[in-house]
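Running co-folding for BIS(adenosine)-5'-pentaphosphate.
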Amino acid sequence: MTTGGPGAGAGSLRAPVSELNLILLGPPGAGKGTQAERITEDFDLPYISTGDILREAVKSGTELGRQAKEYMDRGELVPDDVIIGVILEKVESPEAADGFILDGFPRTVAQAEALDQAFAKLGRELTAAILLDVPDEEVVRRLSGRRISPAGRVYHVDFNPPKVPGRCDVDGSELIQRDDDKPEVIRKRLEVYHSSTAPLIGYYEDKGILRRFDGTMAPTEVHDHIRATIATLKLEDEL
Ligand code: AP5
């Protein structure tokens, strides 16, 4: 793990890029999970998804799952004091010591500040906040057609269909629709995004690490742009 020092980006808060500490920002359905799958493979990074962690906790009936379920079902955020400790533990774990891709955290300014404080103690910094820009009406179209495999692979009935309808391309498992992809919950999630999470765009812009992408392009095109940007960040660091 690189821990700062020369090359840490003098005059900027950008991290030394040999350690890729990436966060994904964007509204529900922007394609964060879709892109994370691909970037994780490109750069061999551990993937930490708060949504997946919470859904798994609900499924296994843990205390975290019990606390989170009612908020998730309503499309609201799980309280900061429930989620922050869980995610910081993942980010600070040995598996994430050389970098990670974080999807779904931070989602409030309080969460972002908690991450900054934890990182400051470790002498680490975020490399980039990758924002996927997608308008609300596109979010609604995407989420109503989304299907996922039990292992978390993401499909869309029209935009990213599996080879065999209703079956995962990788393991053949049956695809399901998420409980919070119902129209009234989608609307609530969008509302919560605009009020609680969108302020993070300015937060990371001020730190000089925001990277903005047009999330309305095809998944492959979005991926090409993100991969090129991350590769450039790495290259700049190596020069
Ligand atoms: P979470 O699971 O994080 O949900 P989300 O942020 O709402 O994001 P989604 O997973 O819905 O969408 P995505 O951007 O990953 O899009 P995807 O790639 O699937 O959180 C769920 C809940 O957990 C929250 O509501 C909250 O209650 C709780 N929670 C989580 N984190 C929390 C936190 N930090 N604090 C408090 N509470 C928290 O794509 C969507 C669809 O579009 C797919 O069908 C896909 O195939 C398709 N698609 C993707 N890209 C494209 C494209 N470019 N063109 C066309 N279609 C595309």
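Result summary
Residues 26, 28-34, 50-51, 54, 71-72, 75-78, 83, 104-105, 107, 111, 142, 145-146, 154-156, 159-160, 180, 189, 215, 217-219, 222 surround BIS(adenosine)-5'-pentaphosphate (CB under 6 Å).
Confidence is low (pLDDT under 50) at residues 1-14.
Job closed.
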